[in-house]
Amino acid sequence: MKHYNISSSGLRWLVVTVLVLVLDRASKQLAIHYLVAGAPLPVFPHFNLTLVFNRGAVFGFLATGSGWQNWFFSAIAIVATLVIVVLLAHFSWREKWSCFALALIAGGAPGNLADRLLYGHVIDFFDFYMGKWHFAVFNIADSAICIGVFMLLLDALRQK
After folding, report:
1. Quick check: helix, strand or coil at residue 139?
2. pLDDT tens digits, residue range 36-83?
3. Residue 65 φ then ψ, to 5°
């Protein structure tokens, strides 16, 4: 059995994962405590804090399902997080771009997973808008996942 050295492998980047997870969980607790569901709290032009409970995935995808999607997205989050930890164990910590991207995703996935398991939905509250058009309400976990995936796509395009 191969042993992985945390200090020389990508596992060292799990500190980013933990930071994302802690920030996500703390921000969601603050949102639940201080915001009223569906009532926008203006912060600056084009940005509100609006508490929303999302039963779907990113951008409300499959939010209208009968409940199966909660288990489906939970399973995806668990598998993705485990796969990423294994990948990080095989990467060198010096592969900063890829490790950082993977660590962001590995922090966001369990953040939303915790919501699904605890509440049956994901807690979202960042609300950007222009006029009457509102971008999908999202959270820190969603942001980390999207940034991580975008970074991996950029890396893949760069390497071609």
Report:
1. coil
2. 999 999 999 999 999 999 876 555 555 555 567 778 888 999 999 999
3. -65, 170
